[in-house]
Amino acid sequence: MKILSTPIRDLMVVRGCPIIDKRGAFSRLYCEEELAPVIDGRRILQVNHSTTAKVGTVRGMHFQHPPHTEMKFVRCIKGKIWDVAVDLRADSATFLNWHATQLSPSNGSMMVIPEGFAHGFQCLEENSELLYLHTAFYNHEAERRINYGDPILNIHWPIPVTDLSLKDAQCGFLKHDYEGMTL
């Protein structure tokens, strides 16, 4: 596994190193030893799988509010997605900046999204499947959302958005107030 930094501190992309021969391919999806500098003593507590049927669908932007923040390892195991993370750490030099990367089985990439980030993705191929590894359990009361089209974030989705969940469609925009940005 090759750990690559992004323009946003602590947000990383991990590239797999598949072994390919005439029989097919073998890939290590997660290795605590190789990812030790990233996971830094955290434990994977939950593994989720999602399927997104329609091209253009956006899922996100989701995060868990403290004290239930989580690190996520996101990998596309079928199809292709455009994965986005937004820095929500108020003390960060990149507060409200976003970074995106394409994830697919063929590029073997995985986005490592630390605590304090919102996450979402757009489906670029029908029936795309994601595998998520989490360092915290899902907590319904801590779940928060940011509108995928928020003009403050100005995320450049690669294709027109064709589908959203009702919850994602109804969430509001970030607001400026006299003390700065509010979430």
How would you characterize this protein structure?
The chain is mainly beta and 183 residues long. The chain has 2 helices and 15 strands. The protein has helices at residues 36-39, 166-170; strands at 2-5, 12-15, 19-21, 24-26, 46-52, 58-64, 72-78, 81-87, 98-103, 109-113, 117-123, 128-134, 143-145, 175-177, 180-182. The strands form 4 sheets. Strands 1-2-10-7-12-5 form a 6-stranded antiparallel sheet, with no helix packed on it. Strand 1 (2-5) and strand 2 (12-15) form a beta hairpin. The chain is globular, with a radius of gyration of 16 Å.
Question: What distinguishing features does this structure have?
Answer:
183 residues, mainly beta, six-stranded antiparallel β-sheet, 2 helices, 42% strand
Structural topology:
Layout: E1 2-5, E2 12-15, E3 19-21, E4 24-26, H1 36-39, E5 46-52, E6 58-64, E7 72-78, E8 81-87, E9 98-103, E10 109-113, E11 117-123, E12 128-134, E13 143-145, H2 166-170, E14 175-177, E15 180-182
Antiparallel strand pairs: 1-2, 2-10, 3-4, 5-12, 6-11, 6-13, 7-10, 7-12, 8-9, 8-11, 14-15
Shape: globular
Number of strands: 15
Supply the number of helical segments.
Answer: 2
* SS-derived structural category: mainly beta
Unreliable segments of 5+ consecutive residues? none
The biggest sheet, with number of strands, parallel, antiparallel or mixed sense and barrel status, is: 6 strands, antiparallel
Kindly provide the radius of gyration, computed on alpha-carbon positions and rounded to a whole number of angstroms.
16 Å
Mean model confidence by pLDDT? 93
Order of helices and strands: EEEEHEEEEEEEEEHEE
Roughly what percent helix? under 10%
What proportion of the residues form beta strands (DSSP E)?
35-45%
First-to-last CA distance: 35 Å
Instruction: Record the strand order, biggest sheet.
Output: 1-2-10-7-12-5
